[in-house]
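TL;DR need structure tokens for one chain.
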Amino acid sequence: MKLPPVTFLVGPYTRATLALNAAVRDRRAHMAEAGLTAFPSRTASPVARALALGEGSLAEREAAFDAAVGLDADGGGPVLLSSLNALGAPVQAISGRDLFPEMGAFFAGLARTRYAGARIVVGVEPLTLFFASAGTEALAKRVSNTPWEVLYELSWAELLRDIRALCPEAELLVVTPEASVARAGEVLDTIFGPAAAATHARGLQNAHLSVEGQAVLQTFDAAGAGENVLTDILSRLGSGPSDDELEARFGIDRLTATLLDQRFAEDVAALSRMDGVHLL
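>> reply
TL;DR here they are.
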């Protein structure tokens, strides 16, 4: 698959985006050999934010970005920036009924640059899993102090709708847990193109599975497993916090967790119908 000149993997801190960032961090030299210049979040996040929000004129910021990622006046690429804090750091998540209240400035700034048509990749997962993936005590405390009715209103579909409105020229890709396990090869091919050969589908799959799930998946190595089998493994043996951990750390009881899972399913259905969004 031919890649666009620039791709921003904008996070947030989900199991999928963390696994993809780890692949960039660990395999970037091999990706470069395959023709993709990729930057992990530690490097990419400040570069991306400087382009969209930095000081100086637009021309100066674009020139600095090009120099940082190896582009020139004639284009170049493909380049992938795993800028997982573009939506906002995990500690900034959740204010009122907004998942990432600070994200608007970044995407509005990006839309004013010549990279307004870049590809933007977002990872989504049920909020109970996202809260655990983000892994900050400040976020955990905020979640525990937020009424369940407000948590239920937090919407990935609304987030993508807002990004679409701010960056109407961008190509938006959304990575779900099901795609990460049942169609991991397709996800990697879509995001990394020929450089996907430098990655391992198992790393993306394992990020979503418990130890038992990983062991079950390994039994299919010789014969392979179809999408339905892989989806079933994810459903029964996915990774994530226990009911007790959700209650103790986030104040989320079993009923609320079930409602949040239902809301996530509704969001995924809405994303599948959303114009300008490609759901992997």
